[in-house]
Amino acid sequence: MLKKGKLVALFIINVVIILLLGSTISLALSEQNIKMNVSNREYEVRCNTNPKIFSQNANSMYMWFGLQSQDDNNSMGIKVSKIEIVQNEKVIARANKIRSYSILGNYDTDSLEFINDFANKNGENVVDIVFYLGSKEVARVKDYILKVYSNSVISYMDISEIGVQSNSLNIELEMINVSKDAKIDVYLVNDSNDKIAKLDKLIADDYNNKEHRRNFECSLLFSNKEYVKNHENYKVIVTVDGNKLNMVDVKGPSIVVLNGCTMNIIYDPVEYMDDTTADVVDHFGGFEIFKTKDAIESSKAWRVAFNKPIHFDSINKDNIYIIDKQTGLSIDVDYKVEVDHKAVQIIPLNGAFELGKTYILIVENRIKARDGVNLSKPAMTEFIIK
C-alpha cells in the first residue's frame, strides 16, 4: 500500500514500480578556494579543471577535475561516479563515465557531454560543478568560472626555449572553432610591428571534430639573428585565412628573450595522473535498480507512467535520458507527455539504438509532480537491443 503523497512511476515494457518523494542536498562547496562541509566538518579546498576554455559548439570532450585541500594539497578522498556542470539550475554538461582517483583527488572523463547551451557563448560563465557517488551528491563547487567560445580563438600556446644564438623556435597552438581546412599562418613581430620570423616547417596539425579543437605545431625561422636581442619583447601573431586570431588565455602570447640562452613561457601547469589504480565505484548506488531487459526492439519507445500529474518543465534531457553503457553518452530521443500528464513516452530518433548494444534508461530525482513533490530516489534500468 502506498503512503499518501508519494509519486509513483512505472517503466512500461515490463512493469516496475518506483516510489519517489522529496530530496535533500547534504553538502556544498563555493569559490575556487572554498569550504566543503562533510559530516559537519569544514575543509578548505581548491578546485581545478583542464581544459578551462572550450568550444560552445563541442558535442563531447575530455575533461579533468581536481579537488585538493587548500593548506597542504592533499586529496579530499572523495569517490565520484558522475559529474554535472550546472548553470541557473540547468544541467549544461554531464559525464556519466568517470575515472575516479580519490587518493589523488583527481577525476577525468573522455565523455563530458554538452546537454544545454551556456548562458554566455563567448566569454566567462559562472557555474556549479556537482560531484556524485551513485545517487548521492558528495561535493559541489559553486561559482566556478569556465570560458566558452563560439568564435574562433586561441585557447592555449606553448613556446620552446630560445636563446640569443638561436635562429628558430617551435610554437604549439591549441585553437577552437577553427576548421581543419582553414589556412594557418604564424609569425613574430617586434615592438615596431616589423615581421621578424615566419612559419618555416609544419610539425603537426590535428583536428578533433567532437571538441571543435585544432592543435597546430610549427617552427618559425628568424629572418635575421640580430633580431633576437636580450630582454626584448616579441609578439606571436596567428592568422586564420588571413584574419588575426585572438588569444583568450589569461597569459598573452609574448616572448621575452633573456641573456645567454634561457627563454621559456610558462602557462598553467597540467597535472597528470600517475599509475594509481582508479577507484571501484558503484555508479548506481542509491538508485532504484530494475532487472535488465533483453531482446528489446531497436525502434521501441519507453513509457514512464506516474500516479499523479507531473510538472511539464521537469521532463527534459536533464532529467530523463538514455545513455550508451559503453561510452556514457546519451542518445537522441524525443519526449511525448500524455494528455493527463501522468505518463511520458521516450522515443529514439534517427535509428539511435544499435543492434547488440546495451543502453541505460535513467530517471533523475529532479522530476517533480505538479504539487511540488520531488523524487527521493533516482531510477535506472538496462536494456539490450536485439
| Main sheet overview | 10 strands, mixed
What's the N-to-C terminus distance? 36 Å
Helix/strand order = EEEEEEEEEEEEEEEEEEEEEEEEEEEE
Q: How helical, in percent, are the residues?
A: under 10%
Please give the domain count: 3
Low-confidence stretches: 12-41, 250-273
Assigned CATH architecture of the largest domain: Sandwich
Number of strands: 28
Spatial shape? elongated
Mean pLDDT value: 78
CATH class of the largest domain: Mainly Beta
At CATH level 3, the topology of the largest domain is: Immunoglobulin-like
- DSSP helical segment count: 0
**How big a fraction of the residues is strand?**
over 45%
Radius of gyration: 25 Å
The class by helix and strand makeup works out as: mainly beta
Task: Give me some keywords for this one.
Immunoglobulin-like; mainly beta; nine-stranded mixed sheet; 386 residues; 0% helix; ten-stranded mixed sheet
